[in-house]
Amino acid sequence: MGTSARFDLPEADAFTRTYWDAAAEGRLLIRRCGACARAHHYPREFCPHCWSEDVTWEEASGLATLYTWSVVHRNDLPPFGERTPYVAAMVDLAEGPRMSTELVGGTEPRAGMALTVAFRDGAPVFRAATEGPPAPGRTGVQ
């Protein structure tokens, strides 16, 4: 974000700044359509279901279920190499959208397992819901 040397975070622009500012505060935002009432993620300025531009930001519950995952054992690109092995995952948010993310916390992944959002360096990641509640502000994940 901004002039950061981080390669794993997207560049915030005028539209996505709201999303990244909320994530830095430990809040996960999604977009909801006023025309068809469906939620979506990744943030877009229109609804991918009905194409309406009547979409607004909404704070997500932070709850999800694990859809699928892959354990990455080798990645030479910074900063991923120092994190291997890590779990790249697709999760189904409680609000409906599917989101790509990372599973943290060391719990053995299982399809359908309950997850809760956490944040690492201002980016949403997920951990097993059975690991207990995230720290205040849901930040500081390693």
What does this protein look like?
There is one protein chain. Strand 1 and strand 2 form a beta hairpin. The chain has 1 helix and 8 strands. With 142 residues, the protein is mostly beta strands. The strands form 2 sheets. A 5-stranded mixed beta barrel has the order 4-5-6-8-7. Strands 2-1-3 form a 3-stranded antiparallel β-sheet.
Short description:
Helix content is 6%, strand content 35%. It has one helix at 17-24, and strands at residues 29-33, 39-40, 55-59, 63-72, 86-93, 98-104, 114-120, 123-128.
Main pleated sheet: 5 strands, mixed, barrel
Return Rg in Å: 15 Å
**Element-level helix/strand string:** HEEEEEEEE
Proportion of residues in β-strands:
35-45%
Q: Can you count the beta strands? A: 8
Observed structural traits:
142 residues, mainly beta, 1 helix, disordered C terminus, three-stranded antiparallel β-sheet, five-stranded mixed barrel
Topology:
Elements: H1 17-24, E1 29-33, E2 39-40, E3 55-59, E4 63-72, E5 86-93, E6 98-104, E7 114-120, E8 123-128
Parallel strand pairs: 6-8
Antiparallel strand pairs: 1-2, 1-3, 4-5, 4-7, 5-6, 7-8
